[in-house]
Design goal:
Largest sheet: 5 strands, mixed
CATH architecture of the largest domain: 2-Layer Sandwich
Structural class: alpha+beta
Helix content: 25-40%
CATH superfamily of the largest domain: Ribonuclease H-like superfamily/Ribonuclease H
Number of strands: 13
Strand order of the largest sheet: 3-2-1-4-5
CATH topology of the largest domain: Nucleotidyltransferase, domain 5
Low-confidence stretches: 53-60
Mean pLDDT: 81
Number of domains: 3
Number of helices: 8
Order of helices and strands: HHHEEEHEHEHHHEEEEEEEE
Strand content: 15-25%
CATH class of the largest domain: Alpha Beta
Length: 313
């Protein structure tokens, strides 16, 4: 019970189990399982039952296999002590959940998005894929077209940019969920009065999150999972997944691409372009050269040609 109190806001059964295992004074002793610890906390009245919560057994987890296969980037709003609203950009490694960059900014803008992803590239290396939403900091799709500054920086580094869409598994859900963990931690500290103070807290949080707090996926801190990975991804590697496949294909002169022993029409104006394909079972989503989703379809294995995509919203 004492350890639960000392851990602060992040003091669930999995975290307690991890820290008990790290205590040299308990070396050689059998550590209770997270399930047993949860039962003890429940009997002590320290856990509130949530019968309506979705069971973990029902989850379908989409995750890349290696560090640097994919980074997710997103921004979240934070209130300073005086009430002013600012944002924090967070860049998360998909496989290990390592927080590879965190940057406080006055607003969700392209310059700070570029600064955040550049920091991630410099400190942890360039990934094979960068995944973002369709915010104006990341794409020019809704602001007059053209190639955005963020797109140019990502592609110049050798990474492939894709923007999330509602009908494929590669959503930004991991980094969006991570915002809540960050805000829970931030709430245990005095509210920062300035952007500089917020950045100092972001830096302290990144160190704690990566090296101290065990993640429920790995039962160890994210940086430990990164260090123990058999190998790393990057632009020179095809991203690895067990639940979905990512590939690139060149559009033929007549406007089709070949995938899964079939062909798909994307239009002759795209002849010669190198498009990104995400395949989840028989479901395919295709992205253009700047990461914008072109559309999706479900493959009919009885057909040699699938026709055109269902256009992206």
């Amino acid at each position: 019970m004492g350890l639960r109190g000392s851990l602060g806001v992040d003091n669930g059964a999995v975290t307690i189990h991890y820290h008990l295992g790290q205590d040299p004074g308990l070396a050689g002793l059998r550590i209770p399982s997270p399930a047993t610890i949860h039962k003890i906390l429940r009997r002590a009245g320290l856990v509130t039952d949530q019968p309506g919560k979705r069971p973990r057994s029902s989850w379908r987890r989409f995750s890349y296999a290696r560090p640097r296969d994919c980074y997710q980037i997103d921004a979240t709003i934070i209130a300073l002590a005086g009430g002013a609203k600012v944002v924090v950009f967070e860049v998360l490694d998909d496989a290990t959940r390592t927080l590879v960059a965190t940057r406080a900014a006055l607003s969700e803008n392209a310059a700070d998005a570029v600064a955040a992803i550049t920091t991630a590239f410099t400190d942890f290396g360039v990934p094979a894929i960068v995944l973002s939403d369709n915010g104006i900091a990341f794409t020019s799709r809704f602001t007059g077209g053209g190639t955005s500054r963020f797109t140019r920086v990502v592609t110049a580094a050798g990474a492939r940019l894709i923007h999330s869409s509602p009908y494929h598994p590669q959503t930004c859900g991991k980094v969006e969920r991570h915002h809540r963990t960050f805000k829970d931690w931030l709430a245990t500290h005095p509210a920062p009065a300035t952007l500089q103070q917020l950045q100092q807290l972001c830096t302290a949080y990144q160190r704690w999150y990566n090296t101290v707090r065990p993640h429920s996926v790995h039962h160890a801190p994210p940086w430990t999972a990164w260090q123990h990975a058999a190998d790393l991804g990057g632009p020179q590697h095809v991203p690895l997944q067990q639940d979905a496949a990512v590939s690139t294909r060149t559009v033929t002169p007549v406007g089709i691409i070949r995938c899964a022993n079939t062909t798909i029409s994307v239009g002759s104006p795209r002849a010669g372009q190198r498009l990104t394909i995400v395949r989840d079972g028989q479901h395919i989503t295709i992205y253009d050269t700047d990461g914008t989703p072109l559309g999706h379809l479900v493959i009919d294995p009885t057909k040699k040609h699938q026709g055109r995509l269902t256009c992206a919203a």
